[in-house]
Amino acid sequence: MVSWVAHELGYTDQVNVTYSRLEYVDQKIAGRIARDLGHEFIYKSLDDIRWMYDIDEMTCRNNGASICLGITGGNRLLFALNTNQFGLEHTGMQGGATLASYYKDKALNYAKPKYGYNQYSNRLSYDFGEEILAKHPTQESFVTYTRGLLGTQSSYLIRQHYVETAAPFQDVDFLNMVFRLPFEYRDRRYIYLKWIAAKYPKAAEYGWEKWGGVKPKHSHVPIRKVKTTQKLITQYGCRLLHIPNRDSMNPMDYWYEQNMEVQRYLQDMFEKRIGNGLLDEQLRQDITDMYKSSSFTDKCLALTVLSAIHLFFENEGAAG
Q1: pLDDT 10s digits, 219-250
Q2: What one-character DSSP code corresponds to residue 113?
Q3: Residue 265: closest CA among 55, 45, 21
Q4: N or C: which terminus of the chain carries fewer CB neighbours within 10 A?
């Protein structure tokens, strides 16, 4: 929608960029939109997973603010481009969450904020200061700030190494307007779908990756529910059979399981750094437990901590 609206406003000289698993619906939908609007289109497949070697580089560039490989292949794609020819990278980031809210439950959305929601992993549990929660009036405010601005958008620290970045959904006036809307208008993107149908009906003819390729129309909601159910069944079946799930834009576990070279590289990094003298024994044990998890995300979180300590504290600790 960002690309489509910008095009109709006269910004037709666009380069549309996407990266995902090869032949995934995200690639196909983005390619169709670029073709129909007459935009240049650049696509990067992530299946080579060379970006999994970039843990230290990503941790350095985002200051350890979030999981090191959250940007997946975005860094390598931007590195390969001559970004001097572009004025701005519009990411559309936070659009879905802002327009639909993070939660389907109204009471939870407006409740007093609590820890424990929207985490990358629930494998470990820590206590945090309650004064952080006191800064936010609602759970939505808290998660927008922490998961959204501090988490998801930490990739901007990486992207801005190459090009200026922006997203219309981060405009302060726009956010103030959206957050004033009744919850029912935002629930399941109700008013967003109405807006698309009324103002940009042709754009509604393209499926959404989040909906499994189903078109963003109220009349297609039943189809979306079927697709969502099928996807959940697949995920459950994969967990039950201990099979990595390939049905996603970035099937991290699947890629990791298929590449012994990457497994050896990450294992070697873990073994070299887990003995770091700056770690107390409890933290060392926690990191070890995370890394031994079958989840690649858990392993990545463990390696992010080890990378941050190596990059930002090791020399300081040695000097001390």
Answers
A1: 888 888 888 788 778 877 877 777 777 878 88
A2: P
A3: 55
A4: C
pTM assigned to the model? 0.88
CB neighbour class for 128 (10 Å; exposed up to 12, middle 13-18, buried from 19) = exposed
* 122, part of any domain: yes
Quote the tokens at residue 71. 């940007």
Q: Is residue 100 part of a domain?
A: yes
Query: CB-hemisphere CA count at 13 Å for 230?
Result: 12
Closest CA to 144 of 215, 185, 201, 93: 93
Tokens coding 167: 């997203």
Alpha carbon separation from 116 to 133, 148, 230 (Å, rounded): 12, 15, 27
Residue 77 lies in a domain: no
Range of the domain at 176: 90-180
Q: Where are the alpha helices (DSSP H) in 207-278?
A: 221-241, 252-258, 260-273
pLDDT of 115-147, one tens digit each? 988 888 989 988 888 999 999 999 999 999 888
292 in a domain, yes or no? no
Q: What whole-number distance in Å separates Cα of residue 136 and Cα of residue 133?
A: 6
CA 4 to chain centre: 22
157 vs 64: CA distance, rounded Å: 10
Extract the tokens encoding 311. 């990059």
CA contacts within 13 A on the Cβ side of 173: 0
